[in-house]
Amino acid sequence: MIKLSLTELNKNYIVINNTANGLLKERLSSLGFINSSSITKIKEGRKNSMDIYLIKGMMIALRKNEADTIWVE
Amino acid sequence: MGRVNICLAGCPNVGKSSLFNILTGLKQHTGNWPGKTVDNLKGTFSYNEYDFDIVDVPGTYSLYGYSDDEVIARDYLCFNDIDCVIVVADPFSFEKSLNLLFQILEYHKNVIFVVNLIDEATNKGIIINKLSLLYHLGIPVVFTSCKKKKGIDELKDTLIEVIEQRFPYNTIKIDYKITYDEITLKNTTFTYETSLKRFKDCDSSFLDSIIKYGDNNLKEDFANYLDNIEYEKHRTNITTINYEKANYITSCCVKYNKDPLKNDKKIDKILTSKKFGIPIMILLLGLILYITIAFANIPSDLLFNFFFNIETYLLEGCNSLGLPIIISEFLILGVYRTCAWVIAVMLPPMAIFFPLFTFLEDLGYLPRIAYNLDYYFKKANCHGKQSLSMCMGFGCNAAGINTTRVIDSPKSKLIAIITNTFIPCNGRFPTFILITSLFFVISADSPYNNIVSAISIAMFICFGVLVTLLVSKLLSKYYFKNTEDTFTLELPPYRKPNLLRIIQRSIIERTIKLLFRAVKISALFGAVIFILANITINDYNIIYYLSNFLDPFGKLIGLDGVIILAFLLALPANEILIPLLIMLYTNTTYITDYESITSFHSLLIANNWTFLTALNVLLFSLLHFPCATALFTIKKETNSIKYTLLSFIIPTIIAITVCLITLFIFNLF
Prior knowledge:
The complex is a heterodimer of chains A (73) and B (669). Chain A has 73 residues and is an alpha+beta fold. Helices cover 18% and strands 38% of the residues of chain A. In chain A, a hairpin with a 7-residue loop joins strand 3 (38-43) and strand 4 (51-55). The longest helix of chain A is centred in the middle third of the chain and has 9 residues, at 22-30. The model of chain A has no long low-confidence stretch (mean pLDDT 90). Chain B contains 27 helices and 11 strands. Chain B has helices at residues 16-24, 68-79, 94-105, 118-123, 130-137, 152-163, 193-197, 204-213, 218-226, 231-253, 262-271, 277-320, 325-363, 366-379, 386-395, 397-403, 410-419, 429-439, 449-479, 499-534, 542-556, 561-569, 577-586, 597-606, 611-623, 628-638, 641-668; strands at residues 3-10, 41-47, 50-56, 84-89, 111-115, 126-128, 141-143, 254-256, 488-491, 536-537, 540-541. In chain B, the strands form 3 sheets. A 6-stranded mixed beta sheet of chain B has the order 2-3-1-4-5-7, sandwiched between helices. A two-stranded antiparallel sheet of chain B has the order 6-8. Chain B has a two-stranded antiparallel ribbon with strand order 10-11. In chain B, helix 15 (386-395) runs antiparallel to helix 16, helix 18 (429-439) packs antiparallel against helix 25 (611-623) and helix 22 crosses helix 23 (577-586). Chain B starts with a strand and ends with a helix. At the A-B interface, helix 1 and strand 5 of A face helix 3, helix 10, helix 11, helix 14 and strand 9 of B.
């Protein structure tokens, strides 16, 4: 089990836990960041900036600290 | 037969607005980035003896109302009598649309599921089994393609089938395993049964909406009730169950023959790359600004000639009607001339800038700008999407402020609104170009003067961006420190923009709307300026007394009383700053243009302008309070006098401070 931000590029993972709180948790859930969703990091931004993930057919950019709230395997 | 209320709902960027355009014939803007539709847009159309009123609500991922746009959509869907809801989905990210559909089905029985962009999907290797979808959802399913106008008649026929209750609904039922308690009310009877049923998964914003559309007496009852519910838990459960169901249905009905986002990923490799992303963005925005500035002069001059020719006829007309000279001068040289001036200077740059910018918007490029720049905005504790409102601010700050609606976080939205004025709009560029060409030169006849002037303007813009980031950081750290902030950014697939629609919409929705607002305020200020210039006390007009009164303060910050007064009187539009300066320096009673650049330069020199005065005028122009149109937009957008005042006060204090600093530095040498 690793944090989403630490995943390898172009490798498929499964979301197992969304540990965000409040508004972020709900917003991420609405975008499909829920348990058992398939997710792939498709682009790494510069250090401490946003990475792009492919989830539910959408390209979603997340900051590292926000991606850290999602655990995958 | 009768009027039928229908509502178009869907996630952001699924082509909902295009469908609205086709159905109503009323063209409406369809920006290709999340959260674009600004308000509930209404239209009508008739079909088979039915008259349909159709409302296009802002794109939303759910009915939980996380942003202002989403609250508008949620409230319309939950609190209105709607005969039929059309839920629009795009085939690329099917599950998010199904999640929204399931939530809407909790509130509405008559729902049609429309899969839009179907041609694009087929081209990208996505095959959807319509019958299977119909079987799983139990509601009518229609496939449409707005580009080729496919499926539109089928949709209209389906609408009538639904309205006439001929469709055998067998709507999918999802068990969320939540027991909905009966709510006993102390004061009132609550009528929105379905809303009440779903009340457990709603937060205080939903309570506000219930009160807004229901009864004030409900407040106490529901506030007590809300304390005891765990809406976050319920919402996450509901979303999880919805997505599980959506995933199952998608796996049964949708087949992906190839990666539908293959080309988008390729383009993104360049447009969002670490090396080329920002240079390409600067190049594109620079090009748009260059085209705007370079090509606005000709139509501007034509408009000037047109309006001033009319002015002569109008004055003659007033005289022949026997109006007293002072009245006709008030109407024509005061009110009319100010309005004409604003139109002549404001219209051409807007009519060039907005279509070009809208082109990038429809292409889907703007979220990529937000992505590229988020690194810097994060350092300033704010939102990457703020860069979009800043880009729009180059065209018009009022439009920039409108654009902040796409920012999900209320905190970042307010920061973006307050700081938008630090981005120089089209109205301020003529002042920058004129003053830099007069004072930021090597020598009178140097061939490098234009380059020096252009570099100076670029440096002013960079300084404006820097101040924006700095003030955003300070506001975020000290003023809004306790506000929650989140940032997620969807990068939609690239789409081919429709040129004709872009021109129509950017001109009608943005240019004309903002111009009309500016002209209304200018008419008022034109009248005020004329009165101030024409009422005399002891042989001097009020303007003389005002500028003398402001002179000590002006001198204190390296300007003078006339300049400060000109900035104040140019509140309706920054475009009239230069004509106001000429009017005030030459003691004329109405705004007027310079005869030649040399004569304008001589006028300024005669009034003790130095390089420092020019520098401080430009800095003050860059950093001072927003124009009246922008302030009006801020009031409308924030619905708060407090934030409107803050948007006036903060930039003004910064402008004064920066002018004091430059004066101090100059005095050192």
